[in-house]
Structures are given as structure tokens and as C-alpha cells.
Amino acid sequence: MRKKIVAGNWKMNLLTDDANQLISLLKDNKNEDVELIVFPSYIFLPSVIKSKGDKLMVGAQNFYPKDKGAFTGEISVSQLSDIGVTHVLIGHSERRAYFGEDESFLKQKVDVALDNTLTPVFCCGEPLEIRDRGEEFSYVKQQLIDSLFHLSIQNIEKCIIAYEPVWAIGTGKTATIEQAEEMHKEIRNWLTEVYGNETAQSISILYGGSCNAANAKELFACENVDGGLIGGAALDSDAFLTISNSF
Ligand code: PGA
After folding, report:
1. Could you give the CA distance from residue 178 to residue 44 in angstroms, rounded to a whole number?
2. Domain limits of the chain?
3. Any idea which residues carry the catalytic annotation?
4. C-alpha span between 205 and 239 (Å, rounded)
5. Which of 33, 169, 180, 223 could form a cystine bridge with 175, CB 3.0-4.6 A?
6. Are 165 and 121 contacting, i.e. CB atoms less than 8 angstroms apart?
7. Could you tell me which CATH number the domain at 4-244 has?
8. From ligand 1's centre to the CA of 212, what distance in Å?
């Protein structure tokens, strides 16, 4: 059965006291049916891992796909797994748009993360002009073909996919349940085409883009939506916990 997952992408937000307070409010979450993952800024990772308790998982928002060496300012996956990080975001639209991370770089990140036993949360999603042209399905499929579908069955089964329409991220404009479900269903169909039904049914596909305490329930009720990747609403413990209880 697919895991239900709610992941909080804190992005470049919070100061030390806020981060500590947020973790102290999340760590006693009692919902055993849902996997909760937080993605804090790098500087908070050690303290969050130390104080998170045994229910929360901790991921990194980024890494550089080399093992070690002269890459000033960068952090490797082996450094992340060394401190207890278990998940990494790959392909977030902000990294694609602002930091020029292209398909082949993202493919490399996916491979390096898996080689180091970190779970990739691979993000895909179309910008507004692509949806306006009616090309959202071919666009998202190509993102998956370019950076993810080279994986073996064993490796794809270790991944989590997040569909995040770019026009819905941080805009307050959520995809309708029909838009979310039809894309998630297509993603699962493509997984079935490439890897077969059993594998496709085992992979969690999260929705991201202005998902909040008010709309999570209807999104998570969709057959192919297995949870959410939450930005803004993940900074508020009440909202994040309400979302995690919305299945
Ligand atoms: P949002 O961000 O929930 O603030 O729209 C989601 C994301 O970027 O992962």
C-alpha cells in the first residue's frame, strides 16, 4: 500500500527560535498513519534532527551531487546522511528557475541521492504558459522521462514524486481537485507504462502548490493523491498538523 506523506518545505524561512518552536510543536504528532517530513534550511538540520523525536523525518532542500572536494559553499549527500538526513528535494521549480538546475543535473542528483540511500522527493510541474497552451501533460511527462525514468524498478520504488504546478506555488491559487487528480492519474499511468502496475501502485505522489488546512482534505481524497508537499502552510504548526490529519 502507498504511504501517506505530508512534507513541509520551509524554504528560506524562519530564524533559530522559530525553527525550534515549530519542531517542538510538531514532534509529538500522534498520527501513526501518515509519514511527516520537514525540510528545514541547512543551518537548522542538526538541531532539528536532535530534537525531532522519533516520529518526524528530516530532509534537505538541496545538495551538490559530488561526494566531496573543492566545491566551496556546497553540501554533499554523504554529509547529509552522516547527520541523519533521510530525504532530499530534487527538481523543485524554484531550483529549476532561479538556480538553473536542468534535466541532466537533476538526473545526476537523483542518482547520487539513491547511491547514498537518501530518498529523493522528485518535483515536477508545469508553468502557467504551458497549461494555457494545453501542453501540461507532455511537459510533465518529459520532466519525468529526462530525470527519473532511467531508474531501475528497485530504485524508482524508493522515490517519492511531487506534482507541483508552478502557477500554484506560493500564489494562493490551488489546482482544482480535477486538475490535481487528472495529472496524478497520468503520472501513475506513465509509471505503469514504464515499470508495470505493481510498482506504479507502490509510489506515493504528493500534490504541492498552495495546499493548506482548508483544501487538503478534498485534495487528499483524490484516488491518486497520496499527500502533500507544503510550503507556506508548513510554517504554522496548527496548519501543518491539520493538513497531516486530512486523509
Ligand atoms: P506553497 O509551496 O505551499 O507555499 O505553495 C509549495 C512548495 O513550493 O513546495
Report:
1. 37
2. 4-244
3. 92, 164
4. 21
5. 180
6. no
7. 3.20.20.70
8. 9
